[in-house]
Amino acid sequence: MGTYITFQGGNGGAGGGGGSGGPAPPPHGYYGPGPNPGPGQYYPYPPGDWRPFSPPENMYALPALFLVYCLTVSPRTGYRITAQVYHTNRNASFRVVEQTVWHYANGGTWDHVDGAYVLNMGGSGTCGSLRFLSNTGENFIITLGVHNYKRWGDIVTNLASDQTGVIITPQYYSNAHRDREQQRERQLTTYNVSNANGRNIRFDYTVTEGKDLRVNIIIG
């Protein structure tokens, strides 16, 4: 059985995208006997054959299977990193003051769900950063992502006033910052660093494989 679709306007000829021209030539030629259909009419030709409809609209008979194929959208292969933050030393109070993602076209977003920070990514080859600031003036950026289908992370402490997430995050994909690129390529599951005050900051991936990753951020 044919499925009929109405298109407004035409394709401007056989070679182009939209425009005011007529419909693109049918792929199988003109089918069937009888006069041309008038406005508002069509003949139910067999699946696979196209019949031009009278302007100003154009109707074509398409196989139902073809229509289903075109409308089927393959699910995107994505990754999710759920980050839970823990404070083990209460002599300072840290809060997230910035959330950034790399390569927005790859679907990077941050969400805050049940007290955790959730990074959603459309695929491998991207990351997201959280910038933390404390009431004592201490700060750091933690960056989490997926490189070559494996998780990775890094922590940068003692930030200068111009070192925000917007500045740091792209450096992991810049030849001018080879040290950051190398950290991404290490694909670490755990890492820790101490800031100028001796405070230790660490991340530990608790789910290290697959597409639903989990990590703990521990602020000492």
Question: What is this entry, summarized?
Answer:
This protein has about 220 residues and is mostly beta strands. About 10% of the residues lie in helices and about 40% in strands. A hairpin with a 4-residue loop joins strand 7 (about 125-135) and strand 8 (about 140-145).
CATH topology of the largest domain: Mutm (Fpg) Protein, Chain: A, domain 2
Beta-strand level of the residues, as a percent range? 35-45%
- Give the helix proportion (percent range): under 10%
Average pLDDT figure: 77
Spatial separation of the terminal alpha carbons: 68 Å
Note the main sheet: 6 strands, mixed
What's the structural domain tally? 2
- Count of DSSP-assigned helices: 3
Secondary-structure element string: EEHEEEEEEEHHEEE
- Point out poorly predicted stretches: 1-34, 37-75
Radius of gyration: 28 Å
Strand order of the largest sheet: 5-6-3-12-11-10
- Class inferred from helices and paired strands: mainly beta
Q: Any idea of the CATH class of the largest domain?
A: Mainly Beta
CATH architecture of the largest domain: Sandwich
The CATH homologous superfamily of the largest domain = Cytolysin/lectin
Approximate shape? globular
How many DSSP-defined strands?
Answer: 12
